[in-house]
Every structure is written in structure tokens, then in C-alpha cells.
Amino acid sequence: MTILDDARRLAATGPVCDACLGRVFADRSFGLTNAERGRSLRVAVALDEDADFDPVDTTDCWVCEGRCAEFDDWAERAVESVADVAFDTYQVGTRTPPLIEENERLLREEIGADPDAGEPFKMEFNREVGKRIGRLTDAEVDFDRPHVQFVLDVEDDRVEATVNSAFVYGRYRKLERDIPQTEWPCRECDGSGRQGREPCDHCDGTGYLYERSVEQLVAPVVEDVMDGVDALFHGAGREDVDARMLDTGRPFVVEVKEPRRRHVDVDRLESDINAFADGAVEVTGLRLATYEMVERVKGLDASKTYRAAVEFDDPVDADALAAALDELDGATIEQYTPRRVDHRRANLTRTREVYGTAGELDDPRHATVEIHGAGGLYVKELVSGDEGRTEPSLAGLLGVGARVTALDVLAVEGEDEPFEDEDYFL
Ligand SMILES: [Zn+2]
Ligand SMILES: [Zn+2]
């Protein structure tokens, strides 16, 4: 059997459009569309038989039921469905009606071909409509993580468009204490702000234990500028609510859901956020980032530098403090889960390294201490000893009770590489 014999038999099954005919032979002769393959075969058969050429109207095709005449229409509908959304990349998927899949199988059966010979309807639809969307929008196909994902539901005759999130990376400084990183709903009322008909008295009816959070001061501005429907805040760890975050700040990513704008001016966004946060929080170094930056920010091992105001139970002399800090410099600390940490967390002993220490007395009962340590080091306990649960500790080495009265985080930096890797920025 030659390809012409096959084509002749396929064409004899009833009206089969050029694309459906050509698709059976889609693995032959690259550089042709299936419609070109089908039409060429039909022409060749006519010439071979010296018969009059008899074109088929695509809308009469019994295999695709005319759908192969609708590529332009579907592309226009897809573009229309995201008319107010800015996007650079997209991907097209198609839900093929079961009847068309069955027709394709029957067609191939006619010449004893594999049920999946050539190319399925779905693949042609994805590609042909996809090409047209590209021409209408100047956007490019991205199979990995496109800005917009179209699903052409041919069965239900509708286009579904999913607009994927946009991401903004930056670092925040928290200049005031008692601001949690993320919003903190009131436990008494589950964030509703109400107890039955009355306002919740635990949170004064606000629904939050703290009226502000870094998230609430930052994310809504990004959401607004990108014109999205929601925003999530992803931080590279978090400091205690009562600790400030100063100096170089802490890396974060704001994820904006269903953004209509992606190419925003980050310098302007930065000033908008800083104006909104009004001195409680500041952001710096904003960059448009990739989806992968979320995992990087949440997962990259990071060391922390702290500055602690320390109070001693008894007077301490400067030499003793210097010697104790020297002892902690480079030490490996064993820490049993602190008493203040959520008791639902498993109790275990962890070891963490102290990379560097510095500090001096403000007066015999007070000192300011700086500690650079591995991620996960409990600094308040490193100072107090936590009743022997942390060893060694500043209090233990001095033989004097000691506690942190105020804590600032000065730096959060990747252990082995910086957070700011160009591969993660747009
Ligand atoms: Zn067809
Ligand atoms: Zn409440």
C-alpha cells in the first residue's frame, strides 16, 4: 500500500477535511501544516486518477465536525478572554470531545493504521490556535511556566484562561517592635473580630492580635500596583515579633495572584510601599523575580547577625565579658528546644555554630552584644542559657544570670551564596 492508496481510502470514508486527512501522516515531511499535507495528498490522488479535483469544505468534515475551520475563532476568543491582562508568555491546552477522538480512531482503522498514527487532534489544535494567539498578541509560547494558560474546551465550547502569579523580591527592614511578619489572626475569635453578636474583646473587634504586620504593610501595595486579586508574603525566615529587622534587611517575595500588570516600575513600587508603611517598615532592592525565587527565599540556608541588649543579674567586668564572648566565638552550641517555643514542636537538641561575636558593657549590669550565627540559632537562649538547656551560654560562662531585653536582627545572608542570584530575576 502506498500513501496515495491510503489517502484515497481515507477520502472515500466521507467528507474529511485537509487537516484531518493530513494529520494521519503528520510524521511525514516536516515543514508542512497538516492541512497542506491533506490538500497535497488530495491533489496527488486526483492527478494520479486524472480525475477532477474535488475539495472538501472543512465545515462538512465528519472527523472534526468542522472544528478545524475554527482556529482563528478560538484564538480570537482566547485573546479576548484576557483582554485586560498584560502577558508575555502563554501555553495552550485543548480538551478534545470524546466523539472526535472516536472519529480519529475510526478514520485510522480504515487503513489499518495505529489508533494514534500521525498526530492527535488535540496537538494540532494546541499548535494552530497557539500560533494565532502569538500573532495576535506578540506573546511567546512557554511550556514551562507561562504567564497565561489557556484551555480550549472544545466540548463545552468555552475558553478557560488561568493567569499565573507574578513575583516581586526585596528586603524589608522592620524599624518598630511588636510587628509580626505576617498577619496574626486573633485566636479567641478565629480572626472574625466577633464573639457571637458582640465585638471580640480580646482583639477589640479587629480580628487581629496585632493591628499591623510586615505583610499587611507591604503586600497590598504590590497587589494594587500589579492589579491582582490577592497577594501572599513569603519571608526568608522571620524574626521574633518584638525584634526589629535593621541594616540590610530580610529577603522576601510577594506573590501576586492573577496580576493584570507584570512590568511595574520597581523603584516607584518601592517608594509607594515605603510611603504606605510610614516608617514602621521599609523595603529595598525590589526586583521582579521568577516563580523559583519563592522556594529560594524559603529554603536557602541563611546565617543571621543579631544585636542584643543584655541585662545581668549581678555586675560584670569588661574583661570577663570579653573572655566569655571570645569563648563563644566559633563555638558549637547545643540547644534543647527552648521553653518559650511552641510546645507542640518536637523537643530535640540541635547544634548550631556561632560564627562571630562582639560586644561591650554599657554599664556593669548592661551590655550590647553582636552575634553572627548559623540559621536556627536561638540567640535569646544563647545569652540566658535557658536554665541549662543551651550550652555553652553567655550566662553560663560568666556565672551570672543574663537575659536579652531587646533584640535586633542586622543581617540575613545565604550561608554559601547570596539570595540575589540573577538567574532568579526577570
Ligand atoms: Zn476535519
Ligand atoms: Zn478576637
What is the number of independent domains? 3
Helix content: 25-40%
What value does the average pLDDT take? 95
The global form is elongated
Q: What structural class results from the helix and strand content?
A: alpha+beta
Please work out how many helical segments DSSP would assign: 12
Largest sheet: 10 strands, mixed
Q: What is the C-alpha radius of gyration, as a whole number of Å?
A: 33 Å
Question: Which hetero compounds are present in the coordinates?
Answer: zinc ion
Number of strands: 16
Structural description of this entry:
29% of the residues lie in helices and 27% in strands. It is built from twelve helices and 16 strands. The strands form three sheets. Strands 5, 8, 9, 10, 11, 12, 13, 14, 15 and 16 form a ten-stranded mixed β-sheet that branches. The protein has a four-stranded mixed β-sheet with strand order 2-1-3-4. A two-stranded antiparallel sheet has the order 6-7. The model has no long low-confidence stretch (mean pLDDT 95). It has 426 residues and is an alpha+beta fold. The radius of gyration is 33 Å and the shape is elongated. Residues 17, 19-20, 61, 63-64, 68 line the site of one zinc ion.
